[in-house]
């Protein structure tokens, strides 16, 4: 079985959460989850990684929008890279909406 992109990220996050829960240690849980998330992001293409970071920065479930991540991303990247980030973000957003409304 081969998995890529967001499926791989979700799989790694679920696995690190399961491992942390089995350890029963809150500190272990946060460090394991952070290590798993960092590894998952590192494995992505830069454009996909930036789209994931943008999605997490704009996450409506959290109360605070991470403007620092967004500013760093859009100021520090070339305009062509920003266009690609927007495209990947929109495709992943569309995929999530389809999953949400077809359940």
TrEMBL record:
InterPro entries tied to this protein: Annexin_sf
Molecular function terms, GO-annotated: calcium ion binding; calcium-dependent phospholipid binding
Domain of life: Eukaryota
Name of the molecule in the record: Uncharacterized protein
